[in-house]
Design brief:
276 residues, mainly alpha, 13 helices, 74% helix
Length: 276
């Protein structure tokens, strides 16, 4: 085998097709779970409370903004703080997955030349580590609910679980798709960062969706995929089931997203190592 053939064989992933790659990565749950957990530990190495620093920062932000936002919107704290807390927790979960997806393959390019593995393993690890952080952040919600509005804990709250699963399912295709695109076109990472900053304000995170009507509501609420993914979790956490239209919208986003990702991943998966 000559040098070129050996180089190509080293860069060739274990899986042959996009479907095989995703299934092979999912079967190696022990690998991506360990990668995700080690990354969380690495980020908070030599700290006393570790990832709880992020939870503490989020709690302070919610209390500070809630005290102001509640007054501006004319809502009492027991009503507005749970709304704000659930919105912020879900927004942090979704937006962090999106932002970190841009550097998924860029930050891992050295691995491509050292070992053979399924590329989807990196996407699963990214979503897993953000889910670990989400489990820390959700403690803020339970503390606020217990102190301010225990009546919001109803049987409908359990519907948050399938909503979270929908976000996780979407997080994988987002990681793969943005990871590939931003690996090929590095400038897009800055564009995505700008989108996330703007999206935080035009998505009903701080303000209730009923504040808008007409064409503005249709654009920023009804047609906003981030809102539908966020609301299928936030509504149950606030003690009411999400509407049927929200679930339909979330499922449509999931199906369309995975379809586009499979097309791109199947077409360009073999070029990932060369783009890195």
């Amino acid at each position: 085998m000559n040098t070129a053939e050996q180089f190509n064989s080293e860069l060739e992933p274990l899986a042959i097709t996009a479907r095989q790659d995703c299934l092979a990565g999912l079967r190696r749950w022990d690998v991506f779970a360990r990668l995700g957990w080690f990354e969380v530990k690495r980020r908070y190495r030599r700290t006393i409370i570790g990832p709880l620093w992020g939870t503490l920062n989020l709690a302070v932000f919610i209390l500070a903004l809630g005290s102001v936002g509640g007054g501006l919107l004319g809502k009492n704290m027991s009503e507005y703080l749970p709304f704000l807390a659930t919105g912020m927790i879900m927004w942090v979960f979704i937006s962090t997955i999106i932002s970190e997806s841009c550097s998924l393959f860029v930050a891992s390019q050295n691995l491509f030349r050292q070992m053979q593995f399924s590329y989807s393993t990196l996407a699963y690890a990214l979503v897993w580590r953000n889910f670990i952080v989400f489990l820390h952040n959700i403690a803020v919600y339970f503390i606020l609910i217990i102190l301010l509005a225990p009546h919001l804990l109803t049987p409908w709250t359990l519907l948050a679980i399938p909503g979270i699963m929908l976000i996780i399912l979407n997080g994988v295709w987002i990681s793969l798709l943005l990871g590939m695109i931003c690996l090929r076109f590095r400038d897009l990472q800055q564009l995505v960062a700008t989108f996330i900053q703007i999206g935080m304000f035009i998505t009903p995170v701080f303000w209730p969706p009923e504040s808008l009507n007409g064409i503005r509501r249709m654009i920023f609420v009804d047609l906003n995929p981030l809102y539908s993914l966020m609301e299928v979790v936030r509504s149950p956490l606030l003690g009411v089931p999400a509407t049927e239209s929200l679930y339909i919208a979330a499922v449509i986003v999931t199906v369309v997203g995975w379809t586009i990702t499979f097309l791109f991943f199947g077409q360009f998966r073999k070029r990932i190592a060369y783009w890195a």
